[in-house]
Write a structure and sequence with these properties.
This protein is mostly beta strands. It has 2 helices and 23 strands. Helix content is about 10%, strand content about 45%. The longest helix is centred in the N-terminal third of the chain and has 28 residues.
Length: about 325
């Protein structure tokens, strides 16, 4: 057999292996439909979408528990739940960014320095592993999503119009895979289990992008909503994403001083096919450190009309440190 023929067979075999790997990732993503990884039934379970459409500003949310995390958590960003673990992303700031008087080389501020963390905990909140993510100036993890097999994490520069790495972490083995890089700051990501594609949101969630698993951008669109900046999102069947976030609004001097701000929190359901906001509602309950609860990490589940929301708005050095807060409410699901 010739060397050229042998090389051709090996190349074809490698292509088959890569294709099979991509198919297995997509198939695993499409097999899951809730943040716990339990009770998967394809992409048919619309309980969360139906229940969230019953949420309004008068929904009676009750805080039912606090889980104190007893390790350094820095500035928390995103949260996700698998069957065995709690995953929490956070950024450790070593040198803060500094804004330029005028933009330089397309940037409005210095890159700063930091360390990106993905904390892996048991269900009691005990730290099991600290996975360090990022490269160079890309050290800022954002909102994360669990697809039933993998946790997806964007790690970006801590400035707009920059760059990011999209990571995939196997929730069972905790193996880390660098999926691809993108040329912008992406601060949140979900896996659309109907398409097997990834959807991310940029700095301030002003723009969305959709990629295949090799990082090819398939579409991009502007956020039609200016109510809040989305911080942490999750996939919701069928082809929807549920996001929480915050807008910092200036206060009058009489309401807290010349530098005071008001944190407006909220949640929004977005249709990944039409790119429209289906429903958005404010959320105004507060953490131990005085932050609105939807400030950063956020995940929600539904059991019929009973909703359970997990949030972790406080940084490690604030108030009582980072606490995972649980809020519950009962609504009438949409028909």
């Amino acid at each position: 057999m010739s060397t050229t023929h042998t090389r051709g067979i090996l190349t074809a075999a490698a292509a088959i292996v890569l294709a099979a790997s991509a198919i297995s990732i997509t198939a695993a993503a499409q097999a899951a439909d809730n943040p716990t990884g339990a009770g998967n039934h394809g992409d048919r379970n619309t309980a969360l979408a139906d229940a969230f459409n019953g949420v309004d500003r008068n929904t009676n949310w009750q805080q039912t528990s606090k889980l104190k995390l007893n390790f350094p958590t820095y500035h928390t960003e995103g949260i996700a739940y698998s069957q065995d673990h709690i995953f929490l992303s956070a950024v450790q700031i070593i040198e803060p960014t500094v804004k330029f008087p005028t933009p330089q080389n397309g940037f409005d501020r210095t890159p700063g320095k930091g360390v990106g963390h993905l904390f892996v905990m048991d269900k009691a909140g005990a730290l099991q592993k600290d996975i360090v993510l990022g490269e160079g100036d890309m050290y800022h993890p954002g909102g994360i999503d669990f697809d039933g097999t993998n946790v997806w994490i964007p790690v970006a520069q801590y400035r707009p119009d920059s760059s990011a790495i999209i990571y995939r972490v196997d929730a069972a083995t905790l193996d880390v895979h660098k999926q691809f890089e993108v040329k912008d700051h992406f601060g949140g990501i979900v896996m659309d289990k109907q398409t097997g594609h990834l959807v991310g949101n940029t700095w301030g969630s002003r723009r969305f992008a959709e990629w295949d698993l090799q990082g090819k951008q398939l579409s991009t669109w502007q956020n039609p909503n200016y109510f809040i900046d989305y911080q942490d999102c999750q996939y919701v069947p069928n082809s929807r994403m549920l996001c929480s976030g915050i807008t910092n609004l200036p206060q009058t001097p009489a309401a807290g001083g010349t530098g005071a701000i008001y944190e407006l929190g909220g949640m929004a359901m977005i249709d990944l096919k039409s790119h429209s906001v289906i429903r958005d509602v404010p959320f105004q309950q507060w953490s131990t450190a005085g932050h609105v609860a939807t400030r950063n990490p956020f995940k929600m589940t539904a059991d019929g009309g009973h909703l359970t929301m997990k949030v972790a708005p406080d940084n490690g050095e604030e108030g009582n440190g980072t606490e995972i807060l649980t809020y519950e409410a009962t609504v009438t699901p949409a028909k």
